[in-house]
Write a structure and sequence with these properties.
333 residues, alpha/beta, Metallo-beta-lactamase, Chain A, 10 helices, 15 strands, 20% strand, binds zinc ion
Length: 333
């Protein structure tokens, strides 16, 4: 059975559980760990059974609870390499130092290097093959990369969040355009236009069921249209109503950012896709990442309904809205 549960969707946090056969993954971890676990339990999902976390991009509403959740569960995190780096930079703001302090730091590091035997600990391999590059971040090199997909967290290995906020139990890299698998789930990541380091959408497939996942994109370019075909479920961004955004409270620069080709998808743009380019195959269309300031669920719904009504063959599609503050009922296939 394939089960898809959106725990939260919107600029205050994004998180979805996908469960297929024996495999359960989290797509983004934009809620605090505590809230994430609470919502999983509300939705009838058991946090301890998660096998991995897969990240779309490094914006805070997608990674807010990432480090704590991965550490608590001792599970690997799947990123693109650029997203991982951007996430680490976000968590490790540069410190200002004087030249004298910098010299002192360099001397200390050199002395430490001399004192230690050579060790690959902490190195990140190149992500040529996303299937093979299980990279432990500071996990002792004695542990083979392919050992256990969900190693037990060990308190002697894990530095405290304060000492190293970027430490994760295990990291795996994937690249857009290169499908990979986690247990029973096949994952095809594709590039989306958004102002992050290397943002992706996904098509997940398992047991012959295909689920498309595309939020946080400024527009729908041909490569994304191509990916969002032949799906059983489509989660599509319907971020803002153009008039509400234009007349709304955001400063001009933020409005420009949202409206740009690397911003967010408007109700109109989502509907245009549904009316003109969507193949109508999905049993469920879920509208997601609705803005709380610049949209109303009814506006998003009516706009998409109109698009689907214009195509009689699509009336079988069930239209749902993912919410920010409560999980959407699980959808099973
Ligand atoms: Zn977002
Ligand atoms: Zn984003």
């Amino acid at each position: 059975m394939v089960r898809f549960t959106v725990l939260a969707s919107g600029s205050k946090g994004n998180c979805t559980v996908l469960s297929c056969g024996r495999t359960r993954i989290l797509v983004d971890a934009g809620l605090s760990c505590r809230e994430l676990f609470r919502r999983m339990k509300l939705a009838g999902e058991e946090p301890a059974t998660l096998n991995a976390i897969v990240i779309t991009h490094e914006h805070q509403d997608h990674v807010n609870g990432l480090a704590v959740t991965a550490r608590k569960l001792g599970i690997p995190v799947y990123f693109t390499e650029a997203t991982h780096r951007a996430w680490m930079r976000w968590l490790s703001p540069r410190r200002q130092m004087t030249y004298a302090q910098w010299l002192e730091m360099v001397r200390k590091q050199a002395a430490e290097r001399q004192a230690e035997p050579e060790s690959p600990v902490g190195e990140i391999d190149s992500p040529d093959d996303p299937g093979e590059t299980a990279v432990e971040n500071s996990v002792p090199s004695a542990m083979p990369a392919s050992a256990d997909p969900a190693p037990e967290p060990s308190s002697d290995q894990a530095p405290s969040l304060k000492d190293d906020p970027t430490w994760l139990p295990a990291i795996e890299y994937f690249s857009a355009g290169q499908p990979f698998s986690i247990g029973d789930i096949c994952i095809s990541p594709f590039t989306i236009p958004h102002d992050a380091a290397d943002p992706v959408g996904f098509v997940f497939s398992s047991e012959g069921v295909r689920l498309g996942f595309a939020t946080d994109l400024g527009y729908i370019p041909p490569n994304v249209r191509e990916q969002l075909r032949d799906l059983d479920l489509l989660l599509l961004e319907s971020n803002h109503d153009l008039e509400m955004l234009r007349d709304g409270p955001y400063p001009w620069s933020v409005k420009q950012r949202v409206l740009s080709r690397v911003g967010h998808l408007s109700n109109d743009a989502a509907s245009q896709f549904l009316a003109a380019d969507y193949d109508g195959q999905a049993a469920y269309v879920i509208l997601g990442h609705l803005s709380e300031n610049n949209n109303l669920p009814e506006l998003a719904r009516v706009s998409a309904e109109r698009a689907l009504l214009g195509r009689a063959s699509l009336l079988a599609n069930r239209l749902l809205l993912a919410a920010q503050h409560e999980p959407l009922s699980a959808i099973s296939f």
